[in-house]
Every structure is written in C-alpha cells, then in structure tokens.
Design brief:
19 strands, four-stranded mixed sheet, alpha/beta, 21% strand, 12 helices
Length: 458
C-alpha cells in the first residue's frame, strides 16, 4: 500500500464572535500523489470555498482570504453561484453531499486521495498560544464516546471525522444539529474544531494516521494531547488541571512527551461485553483501588503488554497523595520534572522513564507534547505515517519515529486515561489487516533507515 501524503491545512483566518462557528469548506484539492515516485495524478481543477456559518442564525458570509501556501492564481474561489443572504445550514449539508458524490470511488487497487476539510466547523474563540488542545479522531459511530471524552477533558479540542458515505454526512450534521441547543453540550462543542476527511469507499479500512495528522496540524496552540476517542482523560476537568501542572514545568522541552498511563475498565461481569461510564473512578485513589481489585487493568495488557509496559505502572500506582483537587504524585527521583513550590507539599508532577531502542519499536502511549507554532515549526513532531489503515502499527510507527528523532518520556503522576472495554475485532481479522499493512511497514522501515540510520525489521 503506498504512503499517501496529506498536505497541511492551508488557511487560517480571524475567528468571529463567540456565537458564530466558521465553516472552512475546502471543496477540492486538485492533486493525487503517491510518494516515492510510484504514481502522480494531476487533476485539472482546484476549487476552494470558505463559508462562515452560524448554526444559531443559519446565515453565512463569504469571506476573501489569502493563502500562505498557494498563490491566488492557483485557486478558484467558487462564489458566483452562492447567494450569501440565502445560504443556510441545509444548503451547507447539501453542498457537502454534492462534493462527496463527485469523488471518484477509492479502492484497495485504486486508492484516491481523500478530500479534506480542515476547520470545517471551527471553535468560537481564539486560544492562547500556550493552551493545550485535545487532538482526537473518530468515525460517525463514535459521537457518544466523543461527548463523554469531551466532558472529562472540558477544554479545546481538534477532532478529525472520517466520512465514507452520504448517510455518514447526515449523521455528522444531525449530531451538530441535535447538540447545538443542548446546554450541556453546546459549550463543549463551542470549543471544538471539526475537520472532515471524506472518501467514497466500501473496502478501505479506517485511516487512523491521516485523521491524527489533520487533527494535530489544526490545533492552533503550542501544546497538544494526542488521545484516541475511546479513551477518557482523568482527572475530571482534565484540561484545567493539566494547564496548571504544565505551568509548573518551565520550560517543557520540545522533545519530551508527558505520558498518561492508560487503563482498561472491564465489564462488571465476565458474561457482559461492555463497561459503562457509571463505573468510572472519581479520582486516582479510586483508580488505584480498582486496579488492585482487578476492575482496571493495563490497557492492552493481556494481548499486547509491550505497548504500555515502559510506562512503569508500579511507580505510578505507588505515587498517591491527597490535596483539595484530587491526587498528588510524590516521587523522590531528582531527575523528574518537578513542581517548584515553597511549602512542604511540593511534589513532582512527572517521573522519568528509560525506554530502550527495542522497547521503542512497540511503545504506543497517550501523551501530551509540544508542537510549536504550527506545521512549519522546527519543533513539530514527526508526521504520522499516513499509509497505515486498520489494525497494525499505526500509532506505534509515530512513536517509533519520535524515539528515533530523539524524543523521550516522562509519566504524569496525577493524570491517566481509561478505555471502556467493548467487543473488538477477532484475532483473525486483526492478522488480516496486519498483513494488509505489510507493504506500508516496509516503506516506513525504509524511511527510518534513510533518515535516522535505524534498522528495523518486520
């Protein structure tokens, strides 16, 4: 499978008043490209439309803009047939469907470039440059998971959504429509930027890393938390607690990832298939007790323990204290990232772990990191290797390359994340998808050798 390269988001414009949401509607990027000189297809037209839409008033304004990446001669602004006084929410839905219908069919044998709308719906306010944004991704079947994740995060988010049918376009718009007047959800969604990635396909697998890369490049702040949508971040109001913790870490090196220890919450009974939100712990202390009771286990600890084992859970489990806001970690290791405090309650916010080159080939934590001021920043982590689809080393490849590029890890003492266990693919299905990714793995390992001199084998 060829490595499909996705260009970074092209346009940033001023954000509007709090009650409005920007819809950046990039209608067609006129190029399919497979890296490595395998194939290049130049599509003869390039079109771009920007619609600023308020979901509350259902009105829109067409805005002029300039691109920092492309000259105006390379763009066609399609606004002559659009009446800005009559364009509304339903017309936007219809326009997206029309663009989807015009996409070529994408298959394993003939893979077309996805159609990407970065900032399709944009958060309502500007972010401080040192804010922390949750970068996540999902299909349209995961909206309930996303709302639960967002309730615990309670901060700005950058979300990539994968759409591969007309029905899924309706599901996305219905989700926005159903929640725009929900007082419990609207404030959370108001701080969320949605990016749409569309493919017309029936046989292509979920493109995890394309979605992760779009979300990462679109966060609009210097710091990110990279976490899949099925993971719930802790403690509650995680964003605010994390901002506080990071303010004590001055400066946070750009090549340090702060790790959230990850757990799986098991169903109440062996005969049940699903864990539920009402079973989640209230604090780190509760989580430690549930772990001792075997209600929580290391995420993927049974089928793939090497994916999380370098986190050194035994240290995290021992570092439990108390304050008014929840657990406080305490670690005597002087090389840890330390919270400087003048009182006797000073504690370390994170402890260092030593990950070997062999462990780095399989380690796949959930992390907070620094990305600088955007895709062109020298501080930006390596790109996700976008050819991986479905099961098989998609996230691992990112951390393997980061390790090769000199990134190292500290584990957050006061933070963690939990996966609500549910039925997954069979082992046979996973092995088939892993085999499908073998060509991509070979290309990725060749890249590691060429760029970093790292030898890796399947």
């Amino acid at each position: 499978m060829p490595h499909t390269h996705i260009d970074p988001p092209l346009f940033l414009v001023s954000l509007p008043h709090h009650s409005r949401i920007n819809a950046f509607f990039i209608m067609r990027l006129a190029r399919n490209r497979y890296d490595g000189g395998i194939k290049k297809l130049i599509v003869p037209t390039m079109m771009m439309m920007v619609i600023m839409i308020s979901l509350f008033s259902e009105s829109a304004v067409i805005s002029n803009f300039t691109s920092s990446s492309l000259s105006s001669s390379n763009l066609e602004v399609m606004n002559e047939n659009l009446d800005s006084t009559t364009t509304n929410y339903m017309e936007l839905r219809a326009s997206v469907k029309q663009q989807f219908q015009q996409l070529p069919q994408s298959t394993k044998k003939q893979m077309e470039r996805p159609l990407i709308f970065p900032h399709f719906l944009r958060r309502s306010s500007r972010l401080p440059e040192n804010d922390i944004v949750l970068a996540t991704h999902m299909s349209t079947s995961k909206f309930d998971n996303f709302l639960l994740q967002l309730q615990y995060w309670n901060g700005p988010a950058s979300v990539s959504i994968y759409i591969k049918s007309i029905e899924e376009i309706d599901q996305f718009f219905d989700f926005i429509d159903d929640n725009k007047n929900n007082n419990n959800h609207v404030l959370l969604l108001d701080e969320t930027s949605f990016h749409i990635i569309m493919e017309k396909t029936t046989d292509l697998l979920y493109p995890h890393n394309i979605l992760r890369q779009v979300a990462m490049e679109s966060i609009e702040s210097n710091y990110f938390v990279a976490m899949d949508v099925d993971l719930i971040p802790f403690p509650k109001n995680c964003h605010d607690h994390l901002v506080q913790a990071v303010s004590r870490i001055d400066p946070l090196p750009h090549n340090i990832f702060l790790v959230f220890p990850s757990f799986a919450l098991l169903p109440r009974r062996p005969t049940e298939d699903y864990a539920t939100a009402d079973m989640l712990p209230e604090s780190k202390q509760d989580a430690v007790i549930m772990y001792r009771q075997k209600k929580l286990i290391m995420f993927h600890g049974q089928e793939f323990p090497q994916g999380q084992a370098p986190t050194q859970y035994d240290i995290w489990l021992e570092n439990v204290g108390h304050d008014d806001h929840g657990p406080i970690g305490k670690n005597a290791n002087s090389s840890a990232i330390t919270a400087n405090n003048n009182n006797n309650n000073a504690h370390d916010d994170a402890y260092p772990i030593s990950v070997t080159a062999e462990q780095a080939r399989d380690y796949e934590p959930y992390v907070m990191g620094y990305r600088g001021d955007g895709p062109s920043s020298m501080m930006m982590p390596p790109r996700y290797w976008e050819g991986f689809r479905g099961f098989g080393r998609d996230k691992i490849s990112f951390f393997h390359e980061c390790y090769s590029a000199g990134y190292r890890y500290r584990v957050l003492n006061d933070f963690f994340c939990i996966h609500l266990e549910h039925p997954t693919q069979t082992q046979e299905e996973k092995m088939k998808e892993l085999k499908d990714n073998q060509e991509t793995r070979l290309a990725f390992y060749a890249h590691l050798k060429e760029r970093y001199g790292v030898e890796a084998t399947i």
